[in-house]
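Quick check before the chapter quiz. The format below is the same one you will see on the exam, so make sure you can read both the input and the output lines.
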Amino acid sequence: MQAMLVCAAMNLKKLANYLWRMGTSPLFQLCMSLFSSVHQGKQISKWNKMVVKQLSYNHFVNSLKGFNLLFDQKIKLGSWQEYLKMREIILDFNDKYRNLLSKDLGAVGGLLFEIGTGRLVISENYEITLENMEKQTKAKMKRHSEVINDAIEENDHSEMQYHLARLGKALGYDVWIAQNDHKREWNNQKLGEFSLKRLNLPNISQSIKETIALIDVIWLDKKERIVGAFEVEKSTSIYSGILRLYDLALTMSENQTKFYLVAPDKREKEIKAQLLRPSIRHSNACQISYILFSELRCDCDAMCKFGTDIGVLDKISRNVG
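Here is the expected output.
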């Protein structure tokens, strides 16, 4: 016990004394509320009640946990009698090891907090330390998995844009790649190399034009008429992609354009559900078909070789009805 206290108190005493003078730490408030000079049987002052209300809940719980572990107690929250019992035990403990701790009880308060959080390992809290380490490991693994999945999704998104751009060029169309994706690469080629430098959309307001410019891929004929628009979906909302296609459809006087969602195979059910919304299903603004990643990836080369116009997509696109 004494060796443990020597190790902890050397730094905690200086820290606690400083925080005591500054009066800014939640730990300082905890010590003041629990260890202030309140005698058993007397009414707790309004000042102490106010301080208790301002306590950091996590600091309080961890310090209480450290107390119960160190002194083999079962003190619970919500009772001033329990707090006073806790105070008495800590005062006796502090008197016994006064040469290692501080007179103002700041160091012992810090000691309890360190034990409660598992940052100071003793025989009574090793399980908490192991649990915290396990939680941290799981959190890191989860974050690592999320980063990997995000990278895979970004790669898939760029790959589908690449296939659509290559196919559009092979069919004789001009291609527009979403403005914010021009610098993305796939197969050692920047997607912007397939794209028009500017998207000319006369008689369209600037706000609508900015929205349309974010559509993932657009095919245009030589008269600058849009013949096909594609939204490539990943983890984002499919509905937002549908709305962008609708914004485009509503700006066109002659609706000869075909609209497509391109999405991972695993999201096919979600696509069907979104396209079966009454507001979309019965709309005359545009009819949206969908293409799965696997089919575009598999058939792109053949369509580039044998296709003559956008009708070649009828072989791999699907509709809901």
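If your answer matched, good. The beta strands are 174-177, 185-186, 189-190, 217-220, 226-232, 258-263, 288-292.
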